């Protein structure tokens, strides 16, 4: 069996197949999942990786051996699994390693209603139970029902954002050989959208480029195709299609902070006075725009577990992250890249201006993007930065160190998994942003020398 301590992360299970994650491990986790959740029925879906079917089958054996019935949804995106968990009222497991290379696989788990399972909400207990199986095998085992949930998923998204009346749009979608190639055609069918499909063939070896749109090199083909076809916009999905990146008609990348602000404004038009969640490295423009539209912005730490917890606590209607994860109360507080994309399509298709003009109202500051520095003594680096900016701004330590000045801010925080410090900086103009960024990086660099 694989090394459970290594593959169980803070929010999911992920590891190299078969060295770290193999079928006996998946079977043991399936049994433990049923024991910990007390589930009588479980829904399971998987992505297009070569290892996903055998791993999912092994998990299902373990779950059924503990007496649980299993609804097997087959191929799906992660947000399709959330739809399944929410609409069926069942705990669920998605087999995917998201944007990781082909040799990886993993599991994303949730309780009924798509409530996430993380380290302190059951994941660690599942790990411990899987390490020392103690349950009794049931005879007969639970039943297995295969169910195609794609049509229901597509219909549900279309009830949340009505695109039937938009003007005709030319859209390029780069699925990166991931699950967007499975879900996008089902959702766009019959809509006034002329679709140009890039890499829709499901292939867990990712023969064209990594299915990780946060990396600029993975957007090059999409940007070129938008310009070559004269498209109105481009959309790029990650491997399990729960994240979406947007390209405008000029081939320019649009910051997820801008998309967060745009979708927040649309959700506030539907739910006046509602709460909107944003993490602490999204643009200052996000809370400003939320307030201007009558909403209540709430700032959280980085990470989907913190976003989802705050959304549940506050009843927020929407949440956005810098990583292009977008969360919706109407979607069981879960994230869906395709639902966010549909909001962008609606905003564009309801009027005649190009996307670059539509989003200009939501883009107010100049950002550095996330910059990583390898630093062994992270505490010393943070201490020196704190000392250098001691009398120049306001400090908070919600997640790492955030310093806010009159027209700028930066956040410096440690990676949870690597000896890295991550810097995000933003200011009213490029000159100020560059100056702040370079000063912080210089201080950090002296510690790592």
Number of helices: 15
CATH topology of the largest domain: Alpha-D-Glucose-1,6-Bisphosphate, Chain A, domain 3
Structural class: alpha/beta
Biggest beta sheet attributes:
7 strands, mixed
Report Rg: 22 Å
Relative strand content = 15-25%
Oligomer: single chain
Molecular structure report:
- One of its GO terms (molecular function) is intramolecular phosphotransferase activity.
- By secondary structure, this protein is of the alpha/beta class.
- It has four domains: 4-148, 3-Layer(aba) Sandwich (Alpha-D-Glucose-1,6-Bisphosphate, Chain A, domain 3), CATH 3.40.120.10; 152-253, Alpha-D-Glucose-1,6-Bisphosphate, Chain A, domain 3, CATH 3.40.120.10; 256-344, Alpha-D-Glucose-1,6-Bisphosphate, subunit A, domain 3 (Alpha-D-Glucose-1,6-Bisphosphate, Chain A, domain 3, 3-Layer(aba) Sandwich); 366-448, Alpha-D-phosphohexomutase, C-terminal domain (TATA-Binding Protein), CATH 3.30.310.
- Helices cover 37% and strands 23% of the residues.
- The protein is built from 15 helices and 23 strands.
- It has helices at 4-7, 23-37, 52-65, 78-88, 123-131, 150-160, 180-188, 220-229, 256-270, 285-292, 304-314, 337-349, 355-360, 378-388, 430-448; strands at 13-16, 41-46, 69-75, 92-95, 104-111, 115-116, 144-146, 169-174, 193-198, 233-237, 244-247, 253-254, 275-279, 296-300, 318-320, 326-328, 334-335, 366-367, 371-374, 394-396, 401-404, 408-414, 420-427.
- Strands 1, 2, 3, 4, 5, 6 and 7 form a seven-stranded mixed β-sheet that branches.
- A hairpin with a 3-residue loop joins β5 and β6 (115-116).
- α2 crosses α3 (52-65) and α9 packs across α12 (337-349).
- The mean pLDDT is 95.
